[in-house]
Amino acid sequence: MEPVLSAIDMLASIEVLIALLIGSVGGVIIGAVPGIGPPVAIAILLPATFALEPIVGLIMLLGVYGSSMYGGALPAVLINTPGTAVNALTTYDGYPMTQSGQPRRAVSLAYSASLVGGLFSVMALILLAPFLAKIAPQFGAREIFLVGLLGMILVIFAHRGSELLAAFTLCLGIFLNSVGLETIRISTIYTFDQKWLNSGFDLIVVVLGLFAISQALLLLTQPNHAPKVPRVDGGMLDGIKEVGKHKRVSGVASGFGVLMGMIPGVGEFTAQFLSYNYAQWTSKTPEKFGNGSPEGLIASEAANNAVPAAAMIPLLALGVPGEALTAMMLSVFYVHNVIPGPGLFQNNIEFVYALYIALALLNVIVFVFLIFFTNPIIKSIQIPTRFLGLGILTLAFVGAYSIRNSVLDCAIAAAFGIVGLIFKRTNIPVVPIILGMVLGGIMEEKLRIAMSKVEAPIDFISRPIAFTIFMMILIFVAVTIVWPLTKALRAKVRKAEERTG
Length: 501
Hints:
By secondary structure, the chain is mostly helical. It has helices spanning 2-11, 14-32, 37-49, 54-79, 90-99, 103-135, 141-158, 163-178, 203-221, 238-245, 247-262, 268-282, 294-318, 324-335, 342-347, 349-381, 385-404, 407-425, 431-451, 464-500, and strands at residues 180-182, 187-189. A hairpin with a 4-residue loop joins strand 1 (180-182) and strand 2 (187-189). The longest helix has 37 residues, at 464-500. The mean pLDDT is 81.
């Protein structure tokens, strides 16, 4: 109880409350405007958070991360255009409701399911914190290395149909992280005698280029348009009652969100897929899914909003980010010399509790804000795309220059912006680059430490946790190789039977 009280005391400052308000309200607006999304917003905000206290900066970024999915549901439901990528599944049942003349019901259901998922995950993880505090110290250098390796593999296979491209961009990120001065032997790597490469590629500069500048260029090169959005009139609290009628669906979906969020490299899409399919399989009216099913909408929104809090677990407990947004947040820890990992749960558990309590408050603030301000937020969806692109481009260059007051950083960000634009135009995954840069550095450090303590390769997995993670990696790789081969073989057998039949 004492750590919780200390966490509440840590949050009881005007700076933290302002950061929470800015992050939550700003995240809703950013999520509601198609074309921005939380990665772009967090990339732009990152340089500004370095000047703040770690708890203040992280809560602001968490506010954007956690609330953007609330806002992203609005255009998904009203105009069939997801505000953020993870709201894509919301269009399946939300937009048909709007077409049938029930936009208020669809929006209210999305808000209420999101609130349930967000609060469920926070409460579950606050209860899990004492257990995590005990198990986190059992993870040494070799275990964290293997978790990072598992995360990389999961990130690759999460990009279904583009696994080779995801592997390529992940390796590109690892390569970019290795460029510059190597501190252990004091030697330069891949600099080719270019002095400007001695300091390597700054993560934030790369993030600004790949996410913010590339998105701005994409918006500027597309036809200018401002979508027409219908108003939503009437009370917004009916959705809570309807979600209450589907406790099983919302509870299971929230549980999937928590479980998938805790696994590095998995995230919202897998949680939504599992929860949506579960809801459809167990529904008395499965034919309504995709045609305005309240259960489908609840399953989608509860699952994706349960992920942000859970996604902080691998970051806080092991120092291993599970996806791009938490990878960006990791830099805030390092700037303030707050090192996430097992020591954080042992020595600074109140900091962890403070972040989770802030996430709980965030969900309540966002829900109340949306009840009263849905229609004003709808107006932000109608911002012309080129005006939006110009604003993002300006803020991105200001952020890149402010990191080290360097025009060179702006030029590097612009170069990565062009690369990001090409990747987006050709459907090459961008997110693995950031994870490669972050996980590559962490894994290299942990591998150096681990190899100094083992005498034979088998010693690397001699401890129970390391062996378990290693077996998970082998099983996952085996399944992902065997499953497509099995499907191809079945298809061939079926074709052969059709020919002979």
